[in-house]
Amino acid sequence: MDNWEKRVEDCLLQVREKTDFVPKAALILGSGLGALADEITCVESISYKEINGFPVSTVAGHKGRFVLGYIGEMPVIIMQGRVHYYEGYPMPEVVLPIRLMRRMGAEILFLTNAAGGINPTFSPGDFMMISDQISSFVPSPLIGPNVEAWGMRFPSMDTVYDKKLCGILKDTAQRLGIPLKQGVYLQTTGPNYESVAEVKMFGKLGADAVGMSTAAEAIAAKHMGMRICGISCISNMAGGTSENPLTHEEVNAIANKAAPQFKKLVKEAIIRMAEERF
Ligand code: HPA
Fold first, then answer.
1. C-beta separation of 217 from 109 below 8 A
2. pLDDT band for position 159 (50/70/90)?
3. Nearest CA among 141, 162, 142 for reference residue 152
4. Which of 45, 51, 98, 250 has the most Cβ atoms closer than 10 angstroms to its Cβ?
């Protein structure tokens, strides 16, 4: 059995040899959304490859580095690229970056991703604030011995997405005039996209969008007592159509197109979060 706590502490020691920066918020940038990291007041960047024992993404369009710096007054650690369960990493390793960022000091986790729309009122290019999640189709990242120092054995997932942070997202979007949908995110293992029957099933189960990340990360973060919020960029309608099968390139292209608005929304929301007292 891997000792995940030791792995995380080893990674933390290596990071601490490079920087003593203490982030308050952690931000994960999904497919096609990585450009936000170029806009912050950068203090340091650390490539995942520089950290022994840290999982490295193999997906095209994912850069694979931490960027540390400030958005407004908020000290942030940004992940430009994440690892996914479908790459073959076990779930506790997929969420190792979350554990590490929490150990560095992050209290807030801001998750972003590209996702397939299931709710028929959604269109490609829409933004969806994640109000809740369905993780039942992937293994829990908490399976295995519980690390008491991280959190409890049976943590509640009653409120995964923090009400106050969600309120800030909604307010910010409204102030900027950026339409913001909201809904339930469902995680699959991937890497295949969904069949038409699966999309229909997920809709009946209460999902508004589907993707291959995020829910497991939110569980690990909640386990460690972080406050979480998230936005999906709806890059396509899930399932696609037989005349026009969905491709990863298409997902990235739509996410890239939506990126300027997305950047504005995320940046302003984080500036607002820095102004709030928690
Ligand atoms: N399904 C699953 N994951 C995704 C999709 C999708 O349609 N689009 C972007 N990520």
1. yes
2. very high
3. 142
4. 98
C-alpha 192 – ligand 1 centre gap (Å): 9
Token pair in block for residue 114: 């590209």
Could you tell which of 251, 252, 257 is best to mutate to test the pocket of ligand 1, judged by most ligand atoms within 8 Å of the CB?
Answer: 251
The runs of H, that is alpha helices, within the chain are 4-18, 91-94, 96-104, 163-176, 196-204, 215-223, 248-275
Q: How many residues would you count in the chain?
A: 278
Ligand 1 centroid to residue 210 C-alpha, Å: 6
Residue 212 is among the residues annotated as catalytic for this protein: yes
Active site residue 114: yes
Instruction: Report the SS3 class of residue 252.
Output: helix
In the predicted model, is pLDDT for residue 207 greater than 90?
Answer: yes
One-letter amino acid of 14: Q
Greatest extent of the chain over all pairs of C-alpha atoms, in Å? 53
pTM of the predicted model over 0.85: yes
